[in-house]
Write a structure and sequence with these properties.
The chain is an alpha+beta fold. Helix content is about 30%, strand content about 45%. The protein folds into two domains: about 60 residues; about 120 residues, Beta Barrel (Lipocalin), CATH 2.40.128. Strand 2 and strand 3 form a beta hairpin. It starts with a helix and ends with a strand.
Length: about 180
């Protein structure tokens, strides 16, 4: 039995050595050198293409800083129909939001997530105050975002809900958004 296994091992070693020697002869032959040179060239040319593709995919993601133009649908009396918003989307799914509207409020804090290719949802909340800085309740904004092909712009539909200090729903409003990537 031991002799038979030793013979099998010797045959296997012999086959692997001959396979290695064949590969070595093939690689060192003129056609082998040519194929090796072509393989190395293709590898070197592919590196920048892969890097560029990675950069393009990065732009198709939401993280970064955005200037967003918000257009209210049927704004309440005294509300500006259009205002600006700065939104920072973080890699971990969190976001911060500030608005240029005249309402006295806190910074919006929330999260976002990808729902499909180049589509996302976001939700954030902020405190609302009156002119005397008395707490009035919260506002929750939820949006569905569609990112452009180049990843530098998005369009969104939003629903905002105002809640009183006890958490009761007071009003609901809608808006459309166009976001421009800043950096």
């Amino acid at each position: 039995m031991k002799v038979q296994k030793a013979a099998q091992n010797t045959v296997m070693e012999s086959k692997s050595e001959s396979g290695f020697q064949f590969a070595r002869r093939a690689a060192l032959s003129a056609p082998g050198k040519f194929l090796l040179a072509v393989a190395v060239t293709i590898s070197l040319v592919s590196i920048p293409l892969l890097t560029r593709a990675d950069q393009t995919n990065d732009k198709r993601k939401l993280p970064g800083n955005w200037m967003v133009t918000v257009t209210r649908v049927n704004p309440a009396p005294g509300q500006a129909p259009i205002f600006l918003s700065l939104v920072t989307y973080f890699e971990d799914g969190n976001l911060l939001q500030e608005g240029s509207d005249t309402a006295i409020r806190s910074t919006g804090r929330g999260n976002w997530e990808r729902i499909r290719h180049q589509q996302f949802t976001q939700s954030f909340i902020f405190f609302r105050f009156d002119a005397a800085r008395t707490y009035l309740g919260t506002r929750v904004v939820t949006s569905t975002i569609t990112l452009s092909r180049d990843g530098n712009e998005y369009q969104a539909d939003s629903v905002g809900q105002n809640f009183d200090t006890s958490g009761n729903l007071l009003t609901t409003s809608q808006a459309t958004e166009v976001g421009q990537r800043l950096f």
